Amino acid sequence: MGNSSGSKIILITGSSSGIGAATARRLAADGHHVVLGARRVDRLAALVDELRDAGGTADHHELDVTSRDSVLSFVEGAHERHGRIDVLVNNAGVMALSTLDTLRVDEWDQMIEVNLRGTLYGIAAALPLMRARGAGHIINIGSTAAYRVDPTAAVYCATKYAVRALTEGLRQESQDIRVTLVSPGYTHSELTERGGDPRVRAAVHAAAEELGMPASAVADAIAHAIAQPGSVDVNEIIMRSTVQG
Predict the structure, then answer these.
(1) Which of 79, 61, 66, 164 is nearest to 127 (CA)?
(2) Hey, which residues does 59 pair with through a beta bridge?
(3) Cα–Cα dist 107/125, whole Å
(4) Which of 33, 93, 220, 238 is the most buried (most CB within 10 A)?
């Protein structure tokens, strides 16, 4: 087991596919208990079965990160079942790319709701429980889009810059809770398959397929941050495939 302090209770949002599912696989293989949350409960149930068949331990709970009540239910339910929460991975995200002049305002709102408000709701639910214990670890999934802005990605980048700022603020406020921002570049996931301008989406999907890392690489980085001794806080990991440049 890769963790010096034994098995942890780890909650992962957006864990029905992509980075979230890969992270669940990696952490369960490391001997941690993973609690999976997403809207697609059928996928969660199948993943839990897969993890258990492989010798891991896992359970799942329906989760809509845009609903504060849903996030509270996810986090507090896990706390009641397991007695503690060691790590929360705020992974749920959406990326709908388009130029601002196409006025896809509903998609702007969705990115703000999922990427920023969803992360805030996760923190609001987990922070009091971690503070009461005097220990915990919050991992927010950022993006290389939190460090540079590209055309068609103005709103997506804005949400990821905000998550980066939020994570750094939480880190500065936290001495007993570890705080990590993991910011991947192009990654093989479903992020490029939904929403946004169809022409932009096709181009970005092609780039992600050509230049992207496997989601398991991001999962490995998350596992690395978790595995450090309690006194060591890996604050930021920025990662890209070598071919992304």
Answers:
(1) 79
(2) 35
(3) 25
(4) 93
Pairwise CA distance, residues 186 & 168, whole Å: 23
Rg of the chain over Cα atoms, rounded to whole angstroms, equals: 17
Which amino acid does the sequence have at 28?
Answer: A
The residues that are catalytic are: 156
Inter-residue contact 56 to 62 (CB < 8 Å): no
Secondary structure E strands in the chain:
9-13, 33-38, 57-62, 87-90, 137-141, 178-184, 236-239
Phi, psi of 19 (to 5 degrees): -60, -40
Pair 179, 197: CB distance under 8 Å = no
- Whole-model pTM: value is 0.95
For residue 117, give both structure tokens: 């408000």
Residue 5: per-residue pLDDT = 52
Strands of the sheet with 178-184, listed across from one edge: 57-62, 33-38, 9-13, 87-90, 137-141, 178-184, 236-239
Q: Right CATH number for 9-239 from 2.160.10.10, 3.30.70.580, 3.90.1300.10, 3.40.50.720?
A: 3.40.50.720
Residues contacting residue 137 through CB under 8 Å, at least 6 positions apart = 86, 87, 88, 177, 178, 179, 180, 225, 226
Residues 6+ apart with CB under 8 A from 245: none
**pLDDT of 84:** 98
**How far apart, in Å, are the Cα atoms of 210 and each of 155, 175, 203?**
24, 41, 11
